[in-house]
Write a structure and sequence with these properties.
This protein has about 280 residues and is α+β, with helices and mostly antiparallel strands. The protein is built from 10 helices and 9 strands. GO terms for molecular function: mRNA binding.
Length: about 280
């Protein structure tokens, strides 16, 4: 199965824009669901930046901070975002309209156990086209649409390499274990149906298989054999960084790689809305 799904022209024209947009009922719903996802059990426990912000501020996060995230930049003005959040049944807005938090605090300890269950219904899909990807937000939305047409998913997370570029691997969390098992049965194995995206054949692995392969790749990289191992996508990983690149990385204020720090989000559509914060 292939997909030619692309974001519609209106969505594309507004992406990354700070210009005001008309908050129709549909736009309000998109805005609210996106913010609720950030605070959900599917994202918050694995989003280092948000988790630390919540911990430091008694659960509160500045709405201006939320509005600065890539997936939120198309929702302007921020005052309208505040109005949307006041309609939420799971979030509350401070009296001055400056901050937002969960009405019911999330049990982070319980979330650890939930993550074990989450991994059981998570698959890794590899070999996506990843050269010359300039707009990660557009790609994120396109892949969310692609997977939502195939099954019922909670989130879609794009993995990145050491240069923060999409590496061709997508982590997909399904709504239920049966849905996950059904997808795996259909698109993997000897009698599997062909799964493709933009004409490129994809491969499907369980999360456990994917993690074992990554671990094996790390071991080979540091085995002393003198050879650099390659991952599923063929990219070198876990190679020591130069002093110059390390210094550069230390100066970054990004919350995650939406997929290293939040994907095992890692971070990582409503469902399926993980992203890397700007």
């Amino acid at each position: 199965m292939s997909s030619s799904a692309e974001p519609n022209s209106e969505s594309q024209s507004r992406r990354g824009s700070y210009a005001p947009v008309e908050f129709t009922a549909q736009v309000k719903q998109q805005c609210l669901k996106q913010v609720e996802f950030y605070f959900s059990e599917f994202n918050l426990p694995y989003d280092k930046f948000l988790r630390m912000t919540v911990a430091k501020n008694d659960g509160w996060v500045p709405i201006t901070t939320i509005a600065s995230f890539n997936r939120m930049k198309k929702f302007r003005p921020v005052d309208k975002v505040v109005e949307c959040l006041r309609e939420s049944k799971v979030l509350e807005v401070s009296d001055d309209g400056e901050n937002v938090k969960r009405i019911e605090p999330l049990d982070f300890e319980g979330a650890k156990n939930a993550r074990l269950e989450q991994n059981k219904r998570t698959l890794a899909v590899i070999n996506f086209p990843h050269e010359n990807v300039d707009d990660m937000t557009a790609l994120q939305e396109s892949l969310e649409e692609f997977f939502n047409k195939l099954s019922e998913v909670n989130q879609v997370r794009l993995r990145r390499d050491h240069k923060k570029k999409f590496n061709g691997t997508v982590i997909v969390e399904f709504k239920t274990l049966p849905k996950c098992e059904e997808f795996l049965k259909v698109y993997s194995g000897e009698d599997a149906e062909t799964l493709s995206y933009e004409g490129k054949k994809l491969e499907v692995f369980t999360k456990k298989q994917y993690d074992l392969q990554r671990e094996a790749t790390r071991s080979k990289n540091f085995s002393g054999s003198g050879q650099r191992s390659r991952s599923f996508t063929g990219h070198r990983k876990n190679m020591p960084k130069s002093r110059r690149s390390t210094k550069s990385d230390d100066n970054k204020s990004e919350s995650e790689s939406k997929e290293e720090l939040r994907e095992e989000a890692g971070k990582e559509s409503v469902p399926a809305q993980a992203e890397e914060h700007p």
